Amino acid sequence: MNISVSELIVRYLERLGIDHIFGMPGAHVLPIYDRLHDSQVKSVLVKHEQGAAFMAGGYARVSHRPAACIATAGPGATNLITGIANAYAERLPVLAITGETSTYIFGKGGLQESSGEGGAIDQGALFASITRYHKLIERTDYLGQVLNQATQVLLGREPGPVLLSIPYNVQKEPVDDSVLEQIHFPRKAALRNTASVAELAALIRDAHTPVIVAGHGCIQAGGRDVVAAFAERFNIPVTTSLKAKGVVAEGTPLSLGCLGVTSNGDAYRYLADHADLLIFLGAGFNERTSYLWDAKLLKNKKIAQVDRDPAQLGRVFQPDVAICGDIRAVMEDVFATLDEDGMAPKAMDRIDTHRAAVTPPAGDKTATQQEAFHLIQRFYSELAQRFPHNALVFDDNIVFAQSYFDVSDRNHYFPNSGISSLGHAIPAAIGARCFAKDSPTFAILGDGGFQMCCMEMMTAVNYSIPLNVVVINNGTLSLIRKNQFQLYGERYIDCDFTNPDFGLLAQSFGVAHYRVETDTDLDAMFANADLTGAINLIEILLDKHAFPRYLSAR
């Protein structure tokens, strides 16, 4: 049966299991929007296309399923770029659909044309390096192959964003609906490398003080429970990268907390002083996690690495054992091997000694600074206690959470990693809440980042999406001010600014507002605010001269 290309695209979205599409209509995508009108796919109108891409990314991060955004040609498409670049860095399966001028006016200077013809913007070139597949669909005869290729990327072992740009006239052309039958859905079989499992098991058996360094790959592989059970069975402590906070519940005996230059340094000291084997599980050992690749972390230690991506193996260090495979599957095999061998749990004395030692906090954090951070520390402590499971926390201001937020193994913490763009937390959290409809959701960010994306709060209002926006109000771009303090002789420029009245802003949005200046204010906020079913704007005041004294990369 013949249907329009626009209807076929909507049916394709449904077949992918996509139930929300985030975007903003324009003339060049109205045929697709018209077919969405009667579709099971719910369209969400955003305030800026960048927000649409971030929302799709947030949805994909929580659901582990493909998500979608849509924009018109020209500026609509270019506004998606930052969010799509973030999805590329995060390997998120985000499908971006954009319009284009009709093919018969390519090269003639059509309004918002981005075909690359006749001096027009080349949209494909703009997206080429931030998508895993992109296609300008100029004809219908290869549409099935294009959609199949897009599907392989979105649902494959190494997913990433896909861009499909469809000219206006092509959207209206007829096509047989059997095209959908050309789409094949890849199966994800767990990768195992059993030849190396014995070597990894031998390293663990011989080690006195092994440590698991868990990365985001553990979460992607669905391996949190296996890693936690393995650690508990054999008394092996676990530290995590920032993106993997909560793989093992923080604050429990075997958790060393987060490893990273902006953390409290507890994990660093244990690894440097006690560990004789590091087991990297899906951890990339990037600049932040490695303390700018500090040699003390790896010195005189055996190293094992398990990762599903072969490009990660040996990328920044030489492992003694390297396994390319599914982390959950590999650790199940290692667990079974050591359990059958009857390996005794490792001694806990080093961990106990480490915890009992009196050590100064990492960096140059004075008592005055600790007092300045008191409210933020208490906020994270209360957040962890009051929401021990099922909460979604999207955090653009990661410095404080890395040290102060104990993430449980049943909570979900999403730091702004990827390309670390300001203005990410609010739209990403909105996208996530569209999937996880019963999860208390928090977007935590600085006041500079807030002003990049605050209007997306109205998207939450328009669709009655419960959301807690937590703004750290210090009237400055903290990272810039910190760097100018440490590295540029306190020559401050373009870091300070004046904020709006957040109370009046919240009133204009029609949402609740809470201003936290004291412990009493914080207690009142947690006591009175509906943090599960309402939209709230919470500001926590911070002295702009107070910031963690870790040294940024030069």
Report on the structure:
- With 554 residues, the protein is α/β, with parallel strands linked by helices.
- The chain has three domains: 2-182, Rossmann fold, CATH 3.40.50; 194-356, 3-Layer(aba) Sandwich (Rossmann fold), CATH 3.40.50; 367-541, Rossmann fold, CATH 3.40.50.
- The protein contains 23 helices and 20 strands.
- β2 (20-23), α2 and β3 (42-45) form a beta-alpha-beta unit.
- α3 (49-63) packs across α18 (425-435), α9 packs across α13 and α11 packs parallel to α13 (327-341).
CATH superfamily of the largest domain: Thiamin diphosphate (ThDP)-binding fold, Pyr/PP domains
| Global outline | globular
**Second rung of CATH, namely the architecture of the largest domain:** 3-Layer(aba) Sandwich
Fraction of residues in helix: 25-40%
Rounded radius of gyration (Å): 25 Å
Q: For this structure, what is the CATH class of the largest domain?
A: Alpha Beta
